[in-house]
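[Q] Does anyone have a clean structure-token version of this?
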Amino acid sequence: MRYFPTFLAALTLNCLSLAKGDNAMSVDVAQITHGPHTHFFGYIGHVQNIPWNKSGRFIVALQSDFHDRMPGQNDPANVVLIDTANDYLVTAVDQSRGWNPQQGTMFYWNPGKPETQFFFNDRDRKTGKVFCVLYDIEQAKRVREYRFADTPIGNGGVAQNGGWFLGLNYARMARLRPVTGYKGAWDWTEREAHPKNDGLFRVDIQTGKKQFLVSFHQMANELKALGRDVKTAICSSTIRSQIARGPGFLFRESWLERTEKEKNQPPLHYDRQR
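[A] Here you go.
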């Protein structure tokens, strides 16, 4: 595979004129990072999830030595801050072992402190268990780790107004939809098609308390009642609606355990408002 290093580009809006009859917009594009390392934020596709902090001074990103394969437990990536007020100086502030080339490490600036705090995922080097980290750039350290020994989950999406994030099992995704998971992470649901103790979780940012919202077992049963037999269930992403108060999420069957006929069926989009 031929490999091309990726880089972050800053998009600066020079002029946005909405005057009568003028809808023109001009944009400046500038390369702000350079090799030999790869720098990227990650595609997540959530509303209002951006690399910049509130003031726009700092851009959070991952810095890795490769981008053409899935990382394992022994492939950490640097968590870096890019200072737009200091000639785009790149400074490594931490490391993550919970990342992939598609989603990065699920970076989110904390809506409660959008100038100084951001979330990212990590995993324990000894146990392989995934957890979420809250980092503060003023204190230059992790101010909280959200670890759950029985159900080690990572951040799957932070509520736009803050207060909580949705938790997902990235180890299960590594087995059943590898591009969105963390290869080699510890999975408590191995060989279970519709586990009763895995699905979608909600974590309170302030207290760290975890709430189990809905299980794969529940979702599979409800879909079966609608005439769809789900063989192996995963939840690969979450979506915080701008309109609805509750979380929505994308529910999938794993293509790794489906027949050719079943692979041609449309994906399952399961929205459950609570």
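[Q] Thanks! Anything notable?
[A] The chain has one domain: 9-263.
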